[in-house]
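RECORD TYPE: inverse folding
INPUT: structure tokens
STRUCTURE:
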């Protein structure tokens, strides 16, 4: 590529088996997030379709044969695809468009965000990918991570976590990466990982195998942060997305404590447990303050 891209790596994996289920013993508990009451996931599949569609449009606009013919250098990869063929591997080893095309269509560029007031790039960059390998890695990760979370918590909460985490990753990336462009959904994906960790912490009492759940998640997070050390991977987007998702998880993903009943389902005179534990309220408050201040 003409400018060395900083691509947000798509090395996130699935959350693994953490056996998260409520141990309710009566149907009067108004718990909607048990294994038996999973919601239908539609938003995450729509995100996947949108990312794939955007990549196709980007490749169409890139039109490798046309601009390479003008430059008289190199050969497009998979030339049988016509205008959808990929840039020469020496320019883009991930089988994708040129950095100039990505920059023109909304890649994160600190200079343009700050000097030219193009703040919209903080959002558009999370829908762009540097190549088909980059796209496939991120979309597979999104399917494995996002669908289960959406089934448990619904499309509104998971959609908010995904988008705000992507924005948070872009903000941190733009503060530290100033000489290269950055694209990819990895900041948003790390936000989902962060939300999974805070969800585990705030709903600690309902997990049947706490140590295994925590260890599995920490290993996944550690591996993906290590991947960020590799060249062309934007770890600042990973960290920014993870921190945003971690705080949002405390705000959006707490679940009622075991044994809580709605007051309308309880006879008069019978004591009722608080819907949430004290630590859940405390974590919620601290996270809201940090999100506002940050």
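DESIGNED SEQUENCE:
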């Amino acid at each position: 590529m003409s400018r060395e891209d900083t691509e947000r790596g798509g090395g996130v994996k699935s959350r693994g088996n953490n056996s998260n289920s409520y141990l309710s013993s009566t149907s009067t508990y108004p718990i909607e997030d048990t294994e038996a009451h999973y919601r239908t996931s539609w938003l995450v599949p729509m995100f996947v379709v949108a990312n794939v569609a955007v990549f196709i449009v980007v490749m169409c606009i890139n039109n490798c044969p046309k601009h390479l013919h003008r430059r008289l250098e190199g050969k497009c990869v998979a030339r049988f695809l016509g205008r959808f063929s990929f840039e020469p591997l020496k320019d883009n080893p991930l089988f994708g468009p040129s950095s100039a095309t990505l920059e023109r269509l909304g890649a994160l560029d600190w200079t343009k965000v700050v000097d030219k007031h193009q703040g919209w790039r903080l959002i558009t960059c999370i829908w762009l990918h540097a190549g088909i390998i980059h796209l496939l890695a991120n979309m597979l990760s999104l399917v494995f991570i996002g669908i289960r979370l959406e089934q448990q918590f619904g499309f509104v909460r998971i959609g908010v976590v995904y988008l705000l985490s992507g924005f948070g990753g872009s903000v941190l990336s733009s503060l530290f990466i100033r000489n290269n462009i950055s694209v990819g959904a990895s900041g948003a994906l790390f936000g989902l990982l962060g939300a999974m960790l805070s969800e585990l912490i705030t709903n600690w009492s309902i997990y049947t195998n706490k140590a295994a759940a925590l260890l599995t998640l920490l290993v996944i997070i550690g591996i993906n942060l290590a991947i960020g050390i590799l060249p062309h991977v934007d770890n600042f987007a990973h960290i920014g997305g993870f921190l945003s998702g971690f705080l949002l998880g405390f705000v959006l993903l707490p679940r009622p404590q075991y044994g809580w009943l709605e007051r309308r389902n309880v006879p008069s005179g019978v004591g009722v447990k608080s819907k949430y534990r004290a630590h859940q309220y405390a974590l919620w408050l601290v996270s809201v303050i940090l999100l506002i201040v940050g």
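NOTES: The chain has eleven helices and two strands.
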